UniProtKB/TrEMBL annotation:
Organism: Oncorhynchus tshawytscha (Chinook salmon)
Broad class of where this protein is predominantly found: membrane
Alphabetized CDD domains for the sequence: SLC5sbd_CHT (cd11474)
Membrane-crossing residue ranges in chain numbering: 6-24, 48-67, 87-105, 126-156, 162-181, 188-206, 236-256, 268-297, 317-343, 378-405, 411-428, 435-453
Gene Ontology CC entries for this record: axon; dendrite; perikaryon; presynaptic membrane
Gene it is expressed from: SLC5A7
Membrane topology recorded in Swiss-Prot or TrEMBL: Multi-pass membrane protein
InterPro entries: Choline_transporter, Na/Glc_symporter_sf, Na/solute_symporter
Protein's name according to its UniProt entry: Uncharacterized protein
UniProt keyword list: Glycoprotein, Ion transport, Membrane, Neurotransmitter biosynthesis, Sodium, Sodium transport, Symport, Transmembrane, Transmembrane helix, Transport
Length: 588
């Protein structure tokens, strides 16, 4: 245990040192070009190059949940590799994000994911969309911190609460000090540790005498069902639903767009997405192998005991269990460093993302448009601490943190993704359609229930079944409703169609005179420039922002481009209206 604690302490000191060094190295970044300090913290001065950018975007996805969850599903009898959807799902998510979303978001000079919503739908709608986005980031951080505590307790028998608090404090501290720069540079170290730690562990686990040939156990039952897995016919729609959730629901996250918007150019933003997609697949390989090793092990020959992890309700801990019981102590401690790295690489990103959205889209744009840059920086620092503390408290005190995470990630998919498509690609959508889409998505998703939270459904979709869930430790039988219908994807499509339909309906009713102008209480159709909606110049720091997307960019000098990017549609508006118009106030 002493050796294990020393190894973990050494790793944490290394991460902390890199985070502080990154903050010190970039403390004057953007000053020469006039970039606000708050924007530098949020998007790193928009000068993140391919090397650091590729690592930090990959590390954001390859977190504790990614490597533990992939190993768990490969190990679980009845699921196997066929149901380990995260590697391909998230890889395709990054490809789709790079092809269709990275370029328009980066070229328009946004600072957070919520900027286009506030520009088009107004401050209040931006605030509503902030809720599922915040829930997703906080619950994700809480879930992976909880996983870290359980992992450390398995391998080195350390107090769970202490391990969670120390890990969270380190991540919060270097994020507080250096913002995106610290997060990005520590991600490089963390991803290297994950890759090396897991790959070092795999050969030792494979050669353990208790482990059978994983090639044989992939297709033949030895100690449990083959780990290759299969998809039953009645589960096909559920599999498709979950895969679409990963592929499309993995796009509308601030952690993704924070890296897209920090890239040197729109082209770089796309390339970073493709690099991260390849990185996700490569980093999943050792997790898949560890899950396969767990399924091929005679646990009776190990110190773990004759009862396998799945019968102790510890299938979600298969990765640390393999490290602990099938590898020599020095290797398991090295692998533990990999798991710790995975957790912190995701926790710091989520905390920074949540604080960025709050400081900019809620505090600055919705309440204090005259706030100084220093004030915004301090709001960010306070919220980094608050959101980090909230995630830590939930990891320690809430037993249903995983259920909350599952539900909130579904809401991001069902509510935010269709709105993102509408705001970027569908002309004519407005606040009325956005509100209707929000309500449709929320009701249809919540109506399907959530077994992990023991939330019963009030909408029974076609093909629903009642299944018995047996708790192996207590022997209790729980009756749960399982929806076999792809209701999450259907809810997302209904939300999108609702947005388009109600937007055009409202537009028709007001513009045809069937509804009087006084009923346009959201100023979404008849008002050319609403107080509620953000002007196109409000969301950028300067009035001259143009992007030459194919221009050659030097990663470290490309901050200069930020001062010369120009939005042509903004200039067109400025040419046709007086400079002193109240609709063209900026936040400078």
């Amino acid at each position: 245990m002493t050796v294990g604690l020393a190894a973990i302490a050494l790793f944490y000191v290394l991460i902390l040192a890199v985070g502080i060094w990154a903050a010190w190295k970039n403390k004057h970044a953007g000053e020469a070009e006039g970039t606000d300090r708050s924007e530098t913290i949020m998007v790193g001065g928009r000068d993140i190059g391919l090397f650091v950018g590729g690592f930090t975007m990959t590390a954001t996805w390859v977190g504790g949940g990614y490597i533990n969850g992939t190993a768990e599903y490969v190990y679980l009898p009845g699921y196997g590799l066929a149901w380990a959807q995260a590697p391909f799902g998230y890889a395709l998510s990054l490809v789709v994000g790079g092809l269709f979303f990275a370029k328009p978001m980066r070229s328009r000079g946004y600072v957070t994911m919520l900027d286009p919503f506030q520009q088009k739908y107004g401050k209040r709608m931006g605030g509503l969309l902030f809720i599922p986005a915040l829930m997703g980031e906080i619950f994700w951080s809480a879930a992976i911190l909880s996983a870290l505590g359980a992992t450390l307790s398995v391998i080195i028998d350390i107090n769970i609460k202490m391990s969670v608090v120390i890990s969270a404090c380190i991540a919060i501290f270097y994020t507080l000090v250096g913002g995106l720069y610290s997060v990005a540079y520590t991600d490089v170290v963390q991803l290297f540790c994950i890759f090396l730690g897991l790959w070092v562990s795999v050969p030792f686990a494979l050669n353990n005498p208790a482990v059978s040939d994983i090639k044989i156990s992939a297709v033949k039952e030895i100690y449990q069902a083959p780990w290759k897995g299969n998809i039953k016919r009645e589960d096909t729609w559920v599999w498709i639903d979950n895969f679409c959730l990963l592929m499309l629901g993995g796009i509308p996250w601030q952690v993704y767009f924070q890296r897209v918007l920090s890239a040197s150019s729109a082209t770089y933003a796309q390339v970073l997405s493709f690099i991260a997609a390849a990185g996700c697949l490569v980093m999943a390989v050792p997790s898949v192998m560890i899950g396969a090793i767990g399924a091929s092990t005679d646990w009776n020959q190990t110190a773990y005991g004759p009862v396998p992890p799945k019968e102790r309700d510890q299938a979600d801990m298969i990765l640390p269990i393999v490290l602990q019981y099938l590898c020599p102590p020095f290797v398991s401690f090295f692998g533990l460093g990999a798991v710790s790295a995975a957790v912190m690489s995701s926790a710091d990103s989520s905390i920074l993302s949540a604080s960025s959205m709050f400081a900019r889209n809620i505090y600055q744009l919705a309440f204090r448009q005259s706030a100084s840059d220093t004030e915004i920086v301090w709001v960010m620092r306070v919220t980094i601490f608050v959101f980090g503390g909230l995630a830590t408290a939930m990891a320690l005190l809430t037993g249903t943190v995983y259920g909350l995470w599952y539900l909130s990630s579904d809401l991001v998919y069902v509510i935010i993704f269709p709105q993102l498509i509408s705001v970027l690609f569908v002309k004519g959508t407005n606040t009325y359609g956005s509100v209707a889409a929000y309500v449709f998505g929320l009701i249809l998703r919540i109506g399907g229930g959530e077994p992990y939270l023991s939330l019963p459904p009030f909408i029974y979709y076609p093909g629903w079944q009642i299944e018995d869930r047996i708790h192996h430790l207590t022997g209790e039988v729980e009756h749960i409703v399982v929806q076999k219908f792809p209701f999450k994807t259907v809810s997302m499509l209904a939300s999108f169609l609702g947005n388009v339909a109600f937007s055009y309906l409202a537009k028709y009713l007001f513009e045809s005179g069937k509804l009087l102008p006084k009923y346009d209480f959201l100023d979404a159709v008849l008002a050319q420039h609403s107080i509620e909606n953000m002007d196109k110049t409000t969301l950028v720091n300067r009035n001259t922002i143009v992007l030459s997307e194919m221009a050659a960019v030097k990663p470290r000098l490309s901050v200069q481009l930020a001062a010369t990017f120009t939005r042509r549609d903004t200039l067109a508006e400025e040419d046709s209206s007086p400079e002193d118009s109240p609709n063209h106030e900026t936040l400078d």
